[in-house]
């Protein structure tokens, strides 16, 4: 150790290149991760592997994070109180804050931290409008030529219905603002589309979040998730990943926050990745900068690889790590139904919403982390005809982030610090070879109603059954006897690595067989799209 906060590591090259800051002088740092779900557990685990991390705090954290030793959980820190978070950072010498959930972001936590001089990985409240307002995102796409589904925005229900009649079904209706993972409806008939419009614009189902609707063409193709790290001007892609949204095997039943994911995803070839960066990510980053709200953080793009053209189109953005992906990358949305997104100012032709939401605190995490309130709107017999699918890009993220984080070999703390300082042009990422997979164990009944407080046994034993097994906790707590109990819909993410996807899959299901949780369930076909090819 030299100079208290710096260390020297010999480099194999005397050249000054993009790897130097990772292999030469590495700044020691104390990190605070804000959040308490599966995404945050995956982030803490990746940061714990970072050579430059002196300490990791997680607020509020969860039982799995605490017991695993991946971070010190600060359950009594009110993350909705920006001044309290800043005071904590100053007291404990925190040199990097990583904000997981979108609620603190849209409430301006990153703004206040940056103003206080604390390096922060996460966008400002203005930049978070990319997720907070679908109309804002669509206008940005229009202005900067970013490919997306054809759409129109409406506040008048009669005009909206006339447009639906003109376009026909199937068609997609979206509430403009954040709606607790329930604001997107795929209507398979005109009648369903009309009723969706009435629910938002007439009945006010989503309050202010649904006072304006986006009516969008239905895209047919294969969905994929794409992550890029952004420092305001530069962007670098993360590895590809793909998730499984439907609750049932063979991709049947209602959509969920994600029942599993894997990385890499064959659907996202290197050629397609380059196309996504050039046609979607870079124009977004440059557009946000021109609009006066530079984006710093992770852009999580929900894509549709169109069947008819084979080209990617942007469905929606998240402004943070996702969840199942984060475990195979990481993330998890914590948003309550009273989130209010109101439009205030406009910058050029793009309107920027302000927010008046209040993050509900740690007690709300297990209930909304994975979009457990998402379910079927209507059914015909036993088959759903219309789904609330907002959870696809607001709550499912933890699965993808999980698989990405377990594959990342770079020093995550230094990478995120570079992003917070506008220095990503000096960074390249290293990934482990092979594949990673996460299989989600959920409470029976999810995404509908489910029982809480059921006991889960043999979690630690399951991590020992095969190499490269890690279990991330999303909705657990400890009972008075020290047993893990389920507190949410999606509860555990069983995450594995292997030389290929088949080996990663086999290890995941071996671990699941050890876990004793009669009240839980999981899909047995995660990875089927890639394994069949």
TrEMBL record:
Its EC number is 6.3.4.13. One of its GO terms (biological process) is purine nucleobase biosynthetic process. One of its GO terms (molecular function) is ATP binding. Keywords: ATP-binding, Ligase, Nucleotide-binding, Purine biosynthesis. Coiled coil: none annotated. The keyword Translocase does not apply. The keyword Nucleotide-binding applies. InterPro entries: ATP-grasp, ATP_grasp_subdomain_1, PreATP-grasp_dom_sf, PRibGlycinamid_synth_ATP-grasp, PRibGlycinamide_synth, PRibGlycinamide_synth_C-dom, PRibGlycinamide_synth_C_sf, PRibGlycinamide_synth_CS. Residues 138-345 form the ATP-grasp domain. Pathway: Purine metabolism; IMP biosynthesis via de novo pathway; N(1)-(5-phospho-D-ribosyl)glycinamide from 5-phospho-alpha-D-ribose 1-diphosphate: step 2/2. It is an enzyme of class 6 (ligase). It holds the Pfam family GARS_A. PANTHER family: PHOSPHORIBOSYLAMINE--GLYCINE LIGASE, PHOSPHORIBOSYLAMINE--GLYCINE LIGASE, CHLOROPLASTIC. HAMAP family: GARS (MF_00138). Belongs to the GARS family. This is phosphoribosylamine--glycine ligase. It comes from Escallonia rubra.
């Amino acid at each position: 150790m030299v100079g208290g906060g710096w260390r020297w590591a010999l480099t194999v090259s005397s050249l000054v290149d993009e790897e130097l800051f990772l292999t030469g002088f590495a700044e020691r740092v104390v990190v605070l991760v804000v959040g308490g779900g599966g995404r945050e557990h995956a982030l803490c685990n990746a940061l714990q592997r970072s050579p430059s991390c002196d300490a990791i705090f997680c607020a509020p954290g969860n039982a799995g994070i605490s017991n695993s030793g991946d971070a010190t959980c600060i359950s009594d820190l009110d993350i909705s109180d920006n001044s309290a978070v800043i005071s904590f950072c100053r007291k404990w010498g925190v040199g990097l804050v990583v904000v997981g959930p979108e609620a603190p972001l849209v409430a301006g936590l990153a703004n206040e931290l940056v103003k206080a001089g604390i390096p922060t990985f996460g966008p400002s409240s203005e930049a978070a409008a990319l997720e907070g307002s679908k109309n804002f995102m669509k206008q940005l796409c229009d202005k900067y030529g970013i490919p997306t589904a054809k759409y129109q925005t409406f506040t008048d229900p009669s005009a909206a219905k006339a447009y639906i009649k003109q376009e026909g079904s199937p068609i997609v209706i979206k509430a403009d603002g954040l709606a607790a993972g329930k604001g997107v409806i795929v209507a398979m008939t005109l009648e369903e589309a009309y009723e969706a419009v009435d629910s938002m614009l007439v009945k006010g189902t989503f309050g202010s979040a649904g006072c304006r609707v986006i009516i969008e063409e239905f895209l047919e193709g294969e969905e994929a998730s794409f992550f890029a790290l952004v420092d305001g001007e530069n962007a670098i892609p993360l590895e590809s990943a793909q998730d499984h949204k439907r609750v049932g095997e063979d991709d049947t039943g209602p959509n969920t926050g994600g029942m599993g994911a894997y990385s890499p995803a064959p659907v996202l070839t290197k050629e397609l990745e380059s196309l996504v960066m050039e046609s979607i990510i870079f124009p977004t980053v440059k557009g946000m900068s021109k609009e006066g709200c530079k984006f710093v953080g992770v852009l999580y793009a929900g894509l549709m690889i169109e069947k008819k053209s084979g080209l990617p189109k942007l469905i929606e953005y998240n402004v943070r790590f996702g969840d199942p992906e984060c475990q195979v990358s990481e993330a998890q949305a914590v948003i309550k139904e009273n989130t209010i997104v109101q439009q205030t100012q406009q910058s050029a032709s793009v309107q920027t919403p302000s927010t008046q939401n209040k993050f509900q605190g740690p007690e709300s995490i297990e209930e909304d982390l994975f979009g457990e309130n998402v379910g079927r709107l209507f059914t015909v017999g036993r088959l759903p005809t219309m789904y609330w699918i907002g959870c696809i890009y607001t709550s499912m993220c933890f699965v993808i982030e999980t698989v990405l984080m377990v594959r990342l070999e770079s020093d995550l703390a230094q990478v995120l610090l570079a992003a917070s300082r506008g220095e990503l042009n000096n960074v390249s990422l290293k990934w482990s070879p092979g594949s990673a997979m996460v299989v989600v164990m959920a409470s029976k009944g999810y995404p509908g109603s489910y029982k809480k407080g059921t006991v889960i046994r043999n979690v630690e034993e399951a991590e020992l059954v095969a190499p490269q097994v890690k279990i991330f906790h999303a909705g657990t707590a400890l009972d008075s006897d020290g047993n893990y109990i389920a507190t949410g819909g999606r509860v555990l993410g069983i995450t594995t690595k292997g030389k290929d996807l088949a080996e990663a899959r086999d290890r995941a299901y071996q671990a699941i067989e050890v876990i004793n949780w009669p009240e839980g369930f999981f899909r047995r076909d995660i990875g089927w799209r890639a394994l069949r090819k």
